[in-house]
Design brief:
This protein folds into 2 domains: about 230 residues, Thrombin, subunit H (Beta Barrel), CATH 2.40.10.120; about 100 residues. Helices cover about 25% and strands about 25% of the residues. The protein is built from 9 helices and 16 strands. The strands form 4 sheets. It has a 6-stranded antiparallel β-barrel. Strands 11-12-13-16-15-14 form a 6-stranded antiparallel barrel. A two-stranded antiparallel ribbon has the order 1-2. A hairpin with a 4-residue loop joins strand 14 and strand 15. The protein is elongated, with a radius of gyration of 25 Å. The chain starts with about 35 loop residues before the first strand and ends with a helix.
């Protein structure tokens, strides 16, 4: 497949995350007051039978996700963290029961899978069963405690000072890559005179006069509206230290496609002089591979604009762990941006977006930084 400019595959995908959650159905029976809400609950036996029925009737999580979407417009992974299917299904049962629409869910499953009698039996039991209290009258402290919950147990709190310091240090290290007056992409400092970016950003520069090539750090719009610029450095004469091209599967949208192990879409650029006063980011071969749902921060120069910061989550880890997909918004020029997790750890190099322009964009994509770091270290070029 002929290579196309990867810079075109930068897309806005964040809108779907802002769609409203479904209204929680509360089952109010008999007299209630302002301090009591009633819901249907499951016995241990009913929970076991429902769990077994789901595993039997929905052999893939995608089938259950479709049912949930059609039934109530619910996003599957809003109900559970990513795990083994049996664990995800149990999490979903517990969450739906807690939200108060377990009867609707069982009835929906019975209609969706009419050949499974377990759903029919459970629907009848729940329709006839008593409601149970979520919480009742108590002290103000008890009521307040009941309203504070861990919604995403897979995402522990980050210390504010640690995360803010990491974002600030990363922002300092991020630069615009330019050819003459034309921005080419984003990069970031990984050594005193080394910048990391994408292969598809650097490769077209091979034919340009070296005196036209430079990076600019500190391009920012300040709070008062003024434009700030920092340090500019030209490229060294023999500036390409190491690189790996991307894979043709990066131009497809099939999550089952597996890129070659060394198709890492990176270039390591040597500058004409060291950058003083800016701490390089660390390339760690042991950097963690994030899970689905991990919060992300990306610092970028889309279209060569003053530095922007964008947020999102990992939506999938594909290609046997060689690609990260996420819902962080990007534009042309964002290629080569660093990706941080919720703790401020560098975990990825952004490189592409959803190549299917026949639909609304579903994801943007990056390369796990640990794999790039390991390749650079193995080649002795870091």
């Amino acid at each position: 497949m002929a290579r196309r400019r990867m810079a075109t595959y930068q897309t806005a995908v964040g809108a779907c995350r802002n769609s409203p959650r479904p209204v929680i159905q509360r089952y109010n029976r008999g007299s209630t007051n302002d301090h009591m809400v009633l819901r249907m609950s499951l016995t241990i036996d009913q929970r076991k039978r429902l769990h077994a029925a789901l595993l039997d009737a929905y052999p893939t999580s995608g089938e259950l996700a479709l049912m949930l979407t059609l039934l109530r417009g619910v996003v599957y992974y809003d109900l559970t963290a990513s795990a083994a299917r049996r664990i995800e299904y149990l999490n979903i049962i517990v969450q739906i029961a807690a939200e108060g629409w377990i009867t609707d869910f069982v009835v929906g499953a019975a209609e969706d899978r009419p050949k499974n009698p377990a759903f029919q039996t459970l629907a009848a039991e729940l329709a006839a069963g008593p409601a149970s209290r979520i919480f009742d009258d108590g002290t103000d402290a008890q009521k307040q405690s009941a309203l504070q919950r861990i919604v995403r147990p897979d995402q522990p709190d980050a210390d504010a000072s640690v995360l803010l310091a990491a974002i600030s240090a990363t922002a300092d290290a991020v630069c615009v890559i330019e050819s003459g007056a034309h921005p080419q992409g984003t990069g970031f400092l990984v050594g005193p005179d080394l910048v990391l970016t994408n292969w598809h950003v650097a490769h077209p520069l091979m034919s340009k006069p070296v005196e036209d090539l430079s990076v600019l750090f500190g391009l920012r719009r300040m709070a008062d509206g003024a434009l700030a610029t920092g340090i500019r450095r030209g490229f060294a004469g023999d500036w390409l230290v190491a690189s790996r091209a991307y894979d043709s599967v990066d131009e497809t949208a099939d999550p089952a496609d597996v890129p070659e192990a060394l198709a890492l879409d990176y270039s390591l650029i040597r500058l004409a002089a060291a950058v003083e006063g800016i701490a390089p980011l660390t390339l760690d071969p042991a950097a963690p591979l994030p899970n689905r749902g991990t919060d992300l921060v990306m610092i970028q120069h889309p279209q060569g604009m003053p530095q922007k910061i964008s947020f999102g989550r990992i939506t999938a880890v594909t290609g046997e762990g060689r690609r990260l997909r996420y819902d962080v918004n990007t534009k042309p020029g964002s290629s080569g941006s660093p990706i941080l997790n919720h703790r401020g750890t560098l975990i990825g190099l952004h490189h592409a977006g959803d190549p299917n322009f026949e639909r609304l964009a579903r994801y943007n994509q990056g390369i796990p930084i640990g794999q790039i770091a390991a390749d650079i270290a193995a080649r002795g070029t870091g």
